[in-house]
């Protein structure tokens, strides 16, 4: 799914959206088109998406047939559903012209499918700790969960604004100021870019706040502190790569680097959001089990045993 996002950004940043003409699912009416740069970029994006679709379907089937919790099955449906929706939107973009506001949704929908895959992978990597019934989430964990999900939602909106800026061709010369001024005139070509930069600055402050909240839990939850640290690091890298895009005159290479960091940042935020909302065991995979009311290893048995001892 990461490659799907990166290849989609490559199509946009190289102007290869019409590399296969208005033909879909064929490319220029052919299964194997005559090779040229723009055609191969668009064709490669379609091939990568096709392979990703098969892999996501396989992962979703494994989640459903493996007896995973309802939460994991919901993540699987999210991944598959948004991936098919993105395919439909992509086909529509090829066959009918669309405004930038609609084109920008393509990356957002792909990001939601990517999120479903990551959430499912993070959730399947470790079972909920059986002692959760004995040791519920601390107030700090609950607070971090609320903060992290809010930051995640804000980041998604900011990513959409970035895609919109790219599709409209809005460009603001100079960094951090815009064309040597503080605020460009509303309605000007540079104004959408200015708003996106302003939003990126706010995101850095939010990521710093999230990291400070997670750092307070480092002794008991080092996973949250590490995840928030990575999110902050990717946020800084994203901002710096945005500055490089401006200084390079929005070259395709620097724009691709900027786009390639986005899934990493969003993935780190997803990790913190999920792990702060649910308690996880740090024991080796397979050594913990989902708590049930029956069985010698259940949290309920542990509670009953402690009552008998006391």
Structure write-up:
With 310 residues, the chain is mainly α. It folds into two domains: 1-125, no CATH class; 132-301. Helices cover 68% and strands 0% of the residues. Helix 1 (2-13) packs antiparallel against helix 4 and helix 4 (100-125) crosses helix 8 (252-277).
DSSP, total strands: 0
The quaternary organization reads as: single chain
The residue-averaged pLDDT reads 80
Large-scale geometry: flat
SSE topology string: HHHHHHHHH
> Termini separation (Å)?
52 Å
Q: Helix count?
A: 9
Main beta sheet, described? none
A few lines on this structure:
This protein is mainly α and 310 residues long. The protein has nine helices and no strands.
Task: Annotate the secondary structure layout.
Layout: H1 2-13, H2 37-65, H3 70-95, H4 100-125, H5 139-168, H6 191-215, H7 222-247, H8 252-277, H9 299-309
Main features:
310 residues, 0% strand, 68% helix, disordered C terminus
């Amino acid at each position: 799914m990461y490659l799907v996002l990166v290849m989609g950004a490559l199509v946009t940043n190289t102007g290869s959206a019409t590399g296969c003409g208005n033909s879909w699912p064929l490319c220029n009416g052919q299964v194997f088109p005559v090779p040229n740069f723009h055609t191969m970029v668009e064709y490669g994006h379609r091939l990568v998406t096709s392979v990703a679709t098969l892999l996501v379907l396989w992962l979703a089937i494994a989640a459903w047939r493996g007896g995973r919790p309802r939460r994991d099955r919901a993540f699987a449906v999210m991944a598959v559903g948004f991936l098919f929706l993105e395919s439909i939107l992509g086909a529509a973009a090829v066959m009918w012209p669309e405004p930038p506001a609609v084109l920008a949704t393509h990356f957002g929908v792909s990001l939601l499918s990517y999120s479903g895959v990551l959430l499912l992978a993070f959730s399947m990597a470790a079972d909920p700790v059986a002692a959760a019934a004995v040791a519920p989430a601390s107030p700090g964990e609950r607070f971090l969960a609320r903060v992290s999900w809010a930051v995640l939602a804000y980041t998604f909106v900011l990513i959409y604004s970035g895609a919109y800026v790219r599709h409209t061709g809005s460009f603001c010369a100079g960094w951090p100021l815009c064309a040597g001024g503080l605020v460009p005139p509303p309605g000007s070509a540079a104004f959408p870019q200015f708003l996106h930069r302003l939003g990126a600055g706010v995101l850095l402050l939010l990521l710093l706040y999230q990291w400070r909240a997670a750092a307070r839990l480092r002794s008991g939850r080092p996973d949250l502190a590490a995840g928030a640290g990575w999110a902050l690091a990717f946020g800084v890298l994203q901002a710096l790569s945005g500055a490089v895009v401006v200084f390079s005159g929005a070259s395709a290479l620097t724009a691709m680097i900027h786009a390639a960091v986005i899934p990493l940042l969003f993935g780190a935020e997803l990790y913190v959001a999920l792990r702060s909302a649910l308690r996880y065991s740090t024991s080796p995979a397979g050594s913990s089990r989902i708590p049930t009311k029956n069985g010698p290893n259940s949290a309920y048995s542990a509670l009953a045993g402690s009552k008998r001892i006391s």
